[in-house]
Amino acid sequence: MMMIQIEIPDILPQGHGTSFKKGIADSLLELARTPINHTSNGHEESRQRGKEVGKCLAQEIAHIVKKPLRS
């Protein structure tokens, strides 16, 4: 399995996690070369794997946003 390490700013105010995740999604979707609802034949499993990675990323972002801000 390949690991990708990204930096998530720890200055996100509480309650801004959804907006941050939408920004990530917007950037990824802009790079799509096919319509968003289209999944090529035989690619369903890869799309599902991507959804699972997205869920993990969303959990990590939620964990960071819920931490109290540093003073």
Largest sheet features: none
Helix content: 40-55%
Mean pLDDT rating? 84
Unreliable stretches covering 5 or more consecutive residues = none
Gyration radius over CA: 15 Å
Q: What does this molecule look like?
A:
The mean pLDDT is 84. Helix 1 (17-30) runs antiparallel to helix 2. The longest helix has 23 residues, at 44-66. It contains two helices and no strands. The N and C termini lie far apart (37 Å). It has helices spanning 17-30, 44-66. It has a domain at 14-26 and 46-71. With 71 residues, the chain is mainly α.
Keywords:
71 residues, mainly alpha, elongated
Question: What can be said about this structure in brief?
Answer:
It contains 2 helices and no strands. The chain is mainly alpha-helical and 71 residues long. The longest helix has 23 residues, at 44-66.
List the helices and strands and how they pair.
Blueprint: H1 17-30, H2 44-66
Helix pairs in contact: 1-2
